[in-house]
């Protein structure tokens, strides 16, 4: 049985254009490589309190590099 409310975040670092919006918006989930600015996924299964922020970051990313899966 699936766990209701589970949310999984994934990132495509090859699509990331290092804008940094995700890290600025939800720094508990996303960081940035200090050299390249490319996204670093800090928490692929964030707690429910961060789910809205995860969805927002996926919407805000200008490169479509963030995917949120809910099941
Ligand atoms: S918002 Fe998108 S393009 Fe910008 S750092 Fe995050 S994943 Fe990369």
Note down, in words, how this protein is organized.
This protein has 71 residues and is of the alpha+beta class. The protein has 2 helices and 4 strands, in the order E-H-E-E-H-E. The protein has one domain: Alpha-Beta Plaits (2-Layer Sandwich). 21% of the residues lie in helices and 23% in strands. The strands form 2 sheets. A two-stranded antiparallel sheet has the order 1-4. A hairpin with a 6-residue loop joins strand 2 and strand 3 (39-41). The radius of gyration is 12 Å and the shape is globular. The mean pLDDT is 94. The structure holds iron/sulfur cluster. The site of iron/sulfur cluster has 15 residues, from helix 1. Its cofactor is [3Fe-4S] cluster. Pfam families: Fer4_13 (PF13370). It comes from Streptomyces fulvorobeus.
Sheet-strand content, in percent, reads: 15-25%
How many β-strands, per DSSP?
4
Tally of distinct domains: 1
Structural class: alpha+beta
Determine Rg (CA atoms, Å): 12 Å
Tell me the name of the CATH class.
Alpha Beta
Summed up, the helix count is: 2
What level of helicity do the residues show?
A: 10-25%
Could you tell me how far the N terminus lies from the C terminus, measured between alpha carbons in angstroms? Answer: 10 Å
Largest sheet: 2 strands, antiparallel
The arrangement of helices and strands along the chain is: EHEEHE
Shape: globular
Cofactor: [3Fe-4S] cluster
GO molecular function: 3 iron, 4 sulfur cluster binding; metal ion binding
Protein name: Ferredoxin
Keywords: 3Fe-4S, Electron transport, Iron, Iron-sulfur, Metal-binding, Transport
